[in-house]
Structure formats: C-alpha cells, structure tokens
From TrEMBL, chain A:
Transmembrane segments: none annotated. Residues 38-201 form the Electron transfer flavoprotein alpha/beta-subunit N-terminal domain. This is Electron transfer flavoprotein subunit beta. It holds the Pfam family ETF.
TrEMBL record, chain B:
This is Electron transfer flavoprotein subunit alpha. Transmembrane segments: none annotated. Residues 4-193 form the Electron transfer flavoprotein alpha/beta-subunit N-terminal domain. InterPro entries: DHS-like_NAD/FAD-binding_dom (IPR029035), ETF_a/b_N (IPR014730), Rossmann-like_a/b/a_fold (IPR014729).
Length: 268, 339
C-alpha cells in the first residue's frame, strides 16, 4: 500500500468562551473587535487533523497537509499551538476568517490551493475537514471543495474511519443518534469529521519546533485571498436578547424539588 | 418568474419522513408567496409510488427511481438530485435537512453553479423576494439574508414548518434518468445505534435531559459514584422517554480515559461542538451552564437546571428555574415519583 495523502482543511474561529457581537463593516457583517479575539482552530476541523495524523502514523508512506485560511498574522499565532499537537505541512492562505464570508468563494480558494500542492498524489487523496465550522456553521464548504477536486465519494459527520489496505469503512452520524456505516473501495474520498474518537493530543514542544521550520516559510508564501459575502445580501444580523428571569430555588428539600419537576414535566 | 423545486427522498422504510413533510409545507408556502410553480422531485427505490403521499399541490412530480437510489450514498444522491434540479429548471430548491440531503446538496449546488443556504430557521416572501433567517457562530447571532443567485438551495432545519398532511392521492410522475449512473464505489453496509445500550437520543421527545460532568465527580462522601449516576440517568430515561444530552466535558471523559457513563457518547453532546436539538422542555443536571454548552439550548423552550452552585451559568438568565440541590438526591426521588 502506498499510504494516504491526507489534506485537512481547517480555519480559525473565535475561542468558544468569547462573547461575540455583530457589527456592520464595509464588506458586510463582521464581529466586533474581531482582530482582537483569541482564535482557535475550528473544533471539528481540529478533530479531523488529529484523526489524519493518527491515520498517517498507522499507514506507512502517508503524509498530512493542513490547508488553512485566515489573516496571516493570526494564523502564525494559531500555528504556535497547533504545531505542537501533530505533524503536518502547512499550506497557508491569507484572507478573512469570518463566518459571514461566502462558502463558495472559500471553497474555490481551498480547492485551488490543494491543486497547487506539489507532490500531492490525487489518486491517494483523503480530503479531511470539519463537518461544519463554528463560524458559518453551514456544513457545505468541504463538499464544495471536494466537488471542485472531482471527488465523488463524500461522507459528512464522520466519527470513525477504519482502513483495510485501501478499503475505507466509515461511520457517519445520521438521524436519531445513529450511525450509517459505508464501505468505499479506495481513495480518493472526502471525509467531513464530527468529533471522531481521539483525545486532543498533548503539547509536544519538540514537535512544535520541527513543524515551525516548514510553517514559517509557508506563512511567508501565503497567497492573499480577497473574500466577501459573495452573492448573499444580508439584512439584519443581531445577537438575540434572550435573558430569562431565573428563579433560583435554595433550601428546598429534594422531595419537593422532585415533585415540582415531575409536575412541570407533565404540564402541557 | 421563480420556479420552486421541493427536493426529497424516500426513507429506507419506504415512506416520506417528517423532516421532508415539513419542508414540503415550507416549499408550498414559499411557492404560493412567490406566485411560482411548485415542482416535486423525489429520489428512492420506487419514488414514484410515494409522490402522491406528500400532500402538496404541485404543477409536476418528477422521480428518480431504482434500487441503487434507495441507498444513502453521496454519489448516487448527488447524481439524482442534479438530474432533478436540471429537469425541473428550478430557480429555488427547497429541502429538509435530512442527513442524506444535507450531505448531497452542497455538492449539487456546486455542480449547477448555484448557491446554498443551510440550517434555515425561517423564510419570508416580501414583494416577490424570498428572504431567509439562519444563525451564525453556532446559534450566537441571527441573520436575515437573501440571494439573487439562481438556483438558490434553501435547506430547512427540522421543526420550522408543520408537516404537510399525508395524502393518498394518485399523481402522475415523470421518470427522470440519471446520466452515467454508477458503478458506485461506495456501498452502504447498514446502520447501528450510537450506543451499545440502545437509543438514548429521541429527537421527538418532549424533554431533553442533559447530564454534565458533575455526575462523575467526587460527591459529598469524597468518592465518585459513576455506576449509581448511570443507573439514575438510565432509570429516568426509561421512565420519562426523554432524550439524553450531555456537556462536552462529560463525553470527553471517555476519550481521556476517565470513568464514564456507559451509554453516553459524543452523539449526545449538546452545544458549540455538539447538537442543537429542538425540544419543548429541557432539564439540566450537574452542568454549569457555560456559554459554549448553552448555545446548544437555543431551541429548547422551557429550561430548568439542578446544580449545587447557586451562581452557575444557568442562574445567570439562562434557565427559567435553577434548583440548588444534589442531583443524585433529586433524580432518585424523581424516578420514584415516575414509578
């Protein structure tokens, strides 16, 4: 077996603990103080990166690339931590990382970047990414990238991939908390991951140093990508005001709480 | 002049699913608002036999049929959908967010050089223009938007419209061929439950019951009681038929080697990197109610929480009622009352 050529697409999103507020910018909606918000690798894309590294480690001859689009300076900050997790080669694209940009344009930029990777064997390609971003949360970009690359075997919401030689056995999330199990004869294929099964790898500073040797030149080469809202015309973008008047119940015996909860469950 | 296509598939049971019936209702209302013709496009083994059961008044019914289109496989679903979109000459394509079409339609939009908007939670037609509502940043902000690009694929989240009424009307269905169908490189083997201990996720349940990591922490006696927690939660789910949700920290324990509740998986996770289920009521237990988790409760209407911390996130305007109490004690008695 020749190993897999695994290309992971992963952008950056605001740290989930941050408060987010929309503003109207010159190019459409944006986040207030977006340039100041701490950013993380998009969580589901991060899971796909860990799965890619795990697969590569168990399939000799495999290699992992991470294709990431974001403001170059922010990408550099982000890579300082991601580089310590797993081994990969970065393909950087310099552009806005916001959730209001057009998935169609992003897919085009990502696909063109992948087509430009030297030594990428498209017959061995496994295209990985998250099943949706924590920004746009649309679940469409990976499929569009795959279509542009001519990949007709696509899987969405993947939690498990097993390989037997070239053969891929895949579990995808479907309705009602169930999995669909499929078998694909061989790469190329696109897998948009959900959580997967692996823990977040611990930081490895040595690995980080090693990765950064190729990451810095990749950042220097990052092509500038102009992005906007595309064909979408936004109306209002607002944060919901949904603060509830919470009744905090203290010193009520468990029996009485239970009675109240059961009565509430049976209402309506 | 707009032309609206309702794109749908037959479930493996041979019937039309609830999410599709809801989208059918939405498509009918949007077509009416736009003064547009509605066309129905169905995919399935014998799709033509199900077209009449949709209960919508359509100008035409199209079907891609055949055993190979019974399987939920991207390549065949995308090929069939593309054929239906082209045959219908639709300018607006509406579908329900089933796992099959959520996976297939972004690629189809790419193939026909259209645009797609997913997770749509509302639609309005004003002055002949369709605008839709969806959420960004995982339910943190809501936007209304429109697109002049055609065809525009609009994928509705479940629960936005009431389902179109079932019908037994006989309709004439035009068979649509799929060019260059197969051979398919992917084979669907089957389905399995996310948990070895049976179904715990029930999308149609009235109540969402969420367990947080507190269930596995040391309790007042200085020891953790994970088996007892599992028994209490399982007992509650069996009695109430509630759907089980989880905080991220609890499901992460399984991959981090900690004590786990055996029937809890990442599929149960609610929040930023989990699900955003729709239930009329939600009960949170042993969960702090931090923002990344609570964004997953956006579509849970009535919310109550049981937590030992009176200052937890739930108490800060995120729940209607917070009971400051030991969830072990409370749920034990809830189970007794439920019998």
């Amino acid at each position: 077996m020749a190993g897999f050529h695994i290309v992971v697409c992963g952008g950056m999103v605001p740290d989930p603990l941050q408060s987010l507020e929309p503003v109207v910018g010159p190019d459409g909606p944006a986040l207030k103080n977006e340039a100041m918000l701490p950013m993380v690798l998009d969580p589901w894309a991060a899971h796909s990166l860990y799965e890619a590294a795990h697969l590569a480690a168990h399939a000799p001859g495999s290699k992992v690339w991470l294709v990431s689009l974001g403001p170059k300076a922010r990408l550099q900050q982000l890579m300082m931590s991601i580089a310590q997790k797993v081994s990969f080669e970065l393909v950087a694209l310099d552009g806005a990382a916001g959730g209001f940009s057009d998935a169609y344009e992003i897919a085009r930029a990502l696909a063109e970047a992948i087509e430009g990777i030297p030594d990428l064997d498209r017959t061995r390609l496994l295209l990985f990414g998250g099943c949706a971003s924590a920004a746009r949360d649309a679940g469409v970009t990976m499929s569009m990238v795959a279509e542009r690359l001519g990949l007709t075997e696509q899987f969405l919401g993947v939690d498990m991939l097993e390989t037997d030689g070239d053969r891929l056995r895949i579990k995808e999330r479907v309705e009602g908390g169930r999995y669909r199990i499929s078998e694909c004869d061989a790469p190329p294929a696109m897998l948009a991951w959900a959580t997967g099964t692996l823990p977040i790898p611990p930081n490895n500073p040595q690995l980080g140093m090693q990765n950064m040797r190729s990451i810095m030149p990749a950042l220097a080469r990052a092509k500038s990508i102009p992005l906007g809202s595309g064909d979408v015309a936004f109306g209002a973008v607002e944060r919901p005001v949904q603060r509830r008047e919470t009744r905090v119940v203290k010193d009520m015996p468990p029996e009485d709480i239970a009675r109240e909860i059961v009565a509430w469950m049976r209402e309506g | 002049m707009e032309r609206v296509l309702l794109l749908a598939h037959v479930e493996s049971s041979g019937e039309i699913g609830k999410t599709t019936r809801e989208a059918a209702q939405g498509a009918a209302e949007i077509a009416r608002g736009l003064g547009a013709e509605l066309v129905v496009g169905l995919i399935g083994a014998r799709a033509e036999t199900q077209a009449g059961t949709l209960g919508v008044d359509a100008a035409a019914f199209l079907a891609v049929s055949g055993d190979e289109f019974d399987e939920a496989r991207y390549a065949s679903d995308a090929a069939a959908s593309t054929a239906l979109v082209k045959a219908s000459e639709a300018t607006v394509v509406i579908a329900g967010a089933t796992s099959r079409l959520s996976r297939a339609l972004p690629g189809v939009a790419q193939r026909v050089d259209g645009r797609i908007t997913t997770h749509v939670t509302g639609a309005e037609v004003d002055g002949g223009q369709l605008s839709i509502e969806r959420w960004y940043y995982r339910q943190r902000m809501k936007a209304t938007l429109t697109s002049p690009r055609r065809p525009w694929f609009v994928i509705f989240a479940p629960g936005i419209y009431g389902p179109a009424p079932a019908s037994d009307e006989a309709v004439t269905c035009r068979a649509i061929g799929v060019p260059a169908a197969g051979p398919w490189r992917t084979r669907v083997i089957g389905e399995d439950a996310g948990s070895s201990e049976g179904q715990t996720i029930r999308p149609d349940a009235t109540l969402l019951f969420v367990a947080g990591a507190g269930w596995t922490k040391k309790q007042g006696d200085g020891a953790s009681h994970v088996p007892e927690a599992a028994e209490l939660i399982r007992g509650f789910l069996d009695r109430s038929q509630a759907s089980l949700g989880s905080s991220k920290s609890l499901v992460d324990q399984s991959s981090e080697g900690g004590d786990v509740i055996p029937f809890m998986t990442h599929l149960n996770q609610v929040g930023q990197t989990g699900a955003t289920p729709r239930h009329p009521k939600g009960l949170s237990t042993c969960c702090h109610g931090e923002e990344p988790h609570v964004v997953g409760w956006r579509f849970v209407t009535e919310r109550r929480a049981v937590n030992l911390d009176a200052n937890c996130g739930w108490a800060r305007g995120k729940a209607d009622v917070v009971y400051v109490a030991d969830a072990f004690e409370v749920m034990k008695r809830v189970n007794e009352l439920l019998g």
